[in-house]
Amino acid sequence: MSAGRISDISEIARKASPALAVAVGLGGVGAVLLVVQMILLAKLVADVALQRLPVEAEFWPFTGFLCAALMRCCVQWASEMTGEQAAQKVVTVFRQDLIQRLFRIGPVGLQDLETGRLATSLTDSVAALQPYIAQYIPRAAAMVILPCVILAVVAGLDGWSFLILAMTGPLIPIFMALVGYSAQGLMDRQWTRLLLLGASFFDAVQGLTTLRLFGQARESVKMVQAMAEAHRLATMQVMRVAFLTSAVLEFFSSLAVALVAIVLGSRLLSGQVDFQTSFLVLLLAPEYFAPLRNFSASYHARQNALSAMDGLMAFMRLPELCVDQGARPHQAKTAAPEKLIFKDVSAGYGQGSDILCGISFTAHRGTITAVTGASGCGKTTLLHILLGMMPVRAGEIIAVDDAGSRIAAQNWRIGWVPQSPHLLNETIRDNLRLADPDADDTRLRSVAALAGVLSFINDLPDGLDTVVGDRGTALSGGEVRRLALARALMNAPDILVFDEPTADLDSANAAMIATALKQLAASRIVIAVSHRPDILHQATQVFHLPEGVLHLNEIQRAVA
Ligand SMILES: Nc1ncnc2c1ncn2[C@@H]1O[C@H](COP(=O)(O)OP(=O)(O)OP(=O)(O)O)[C@@H](O)[C@H]1O
């Protein structure tokens, strides 16, 4: 069992420690109330059944018994609620931290983790922490408090019973530790299977079209089924160990209680101990083992949480590549950049060698810079560093205003239109408002007009209320691209970045995008990765990776 995940999980649980301390404190009060309750019950039974005292004489002990029972219920409820609420709070905050981290890692950093595995880690793995904090920790503390209180009381009542309880009690945690050590392996296997199942199911759904094209859809379903079966079997193994452990614990604790009863019974018959004391010890003996059994029941919550930590740690180990870049729409507008300067920029992935080596060029406002180059030469990488999705290794990218002053990267207003834009399965209005949630319809329409998509929206029966389908499936490729352009314009960008803006489009749609690009470039810096003549024709300069900037006559040759 790795020490790393134990310390990680303890670190998370530590945030709930004040509330957990209250829960444990209340548990302690509950323990004292339980003992009081049992003392009063033993007295009541001894008085009424043995000494034949009138029931009326037992009014106060009986009221005390009821009050203790009622207070114990309240205290127990408060203790559980405090633990649950604290756990819920900690887990919610932790989940928010993870989501924020997700954005800091960014799309480039996340490429190393399968989406299905990531989804399972951020949902099921985080959820597995809650029972650990809410149940395991308070029960582990209760396992010490209540048995100690009961032992202390029994020690004052009967030495033999004390001895039996003191010797048998510690066997349970020792047994749990021994069983837990091997059960952890089974739990780890169950989680690994769950993560694999999530990843392969997600892959199968995402690649359904490809799988069908190659006639592999059935095979893929069989594979997911096999993984689900493997996960079921692993879960059943875990359940089997859990049930067996509980059964063994029940058996041992019942045996210990029976031993106490036999010893007490024989001593009661020989007159070495009185009835009230024997009865009280017999009432307390099962309660002595109850927290130990509760603890063992929640022990799997700890193992589950530890196994779940593996997936979370894989996520937490990812480097945070995203550089905080880009102004939000409601942020006060700073001076528009006049020039965007790439100065001796080098970049690469992980420990690998540089993909971009000492790139230098300047993109001016009012111009279009096209970036071309052979496949794999680093065009997308160049866009990644410009968009702040990964850091540069050397050199810098600078934006300067017309007075020559630098504009901080967090104040750049960048609009980004990827090659395969992601539209949400919502209305056109909702998709456009992603970039500016407060935008009214007038603004949405003016931006749509800029992107050349307004007439298309107006022709739709539901206009801006049209639902675009999952990933924009209800629209054509060109319509998706122009809607994505409109969405990028919602941010009032000074720098517009396109990745293959006309790829896969017919000539009419490509021409529409190219014209929109030309118009938009009048007051902006536009950078477009593209090989297509329609874009290269509009470009003011072409940056050819890795050689550098081509001049206009060279552009013509490149286009030809
Ligand atoms: N996340 C990554 N981790 C490691 N290497 C990567 C990663 N992304 C890209 N690469 C590598 O970086 C190099 C440049 O990739 P990039 O996607 O920037 O090229 P490109 O010019 O955009 O290619 P294409 O025109 O085919 O899209 C390639 O060799 C690629 O394998």
Please explain how this structure is put together.
The chain has 560 residues and is α/β, with parallel strands linked by helices. The protein has helices at residues 3-14, 17-50, 59-110, 115-127, 129-157, 159-168, 171-206, 208-213, 217-269, 275-316, 379-386, 428-433, 441-450, 454-459, 477-489, 507-521, 533-538, 552-559; strands at residues 339-347, 356-364, 367-373, 394-400, 406-407, 414-417, 495-499, 525-529, 541-545, 548-550. A hairpin with a 2-residue loop joins strand 9 (541-545) and strand 10 (548-550). The two termini are 64 Å apart. The mean pLDDT is 84. The structure holds adenosine-5'-triphosphate (ATP). One of its GO terms (cellular component) is plasma membrane.
What characteristics describe this protein?
alpha/beta; 2 domains; binds adenosine-5'-triphosphate; ATP hydrolysis activity; nucleotide-binding; ABC transporter transmembrane region fold; four-stranded antiparallel sheet; 560 residues; ABC1_TM_dom; ABC-type transporter activity; P-loop_NTPase; Rossmann fold; six-stranded mixed sheet; elongated
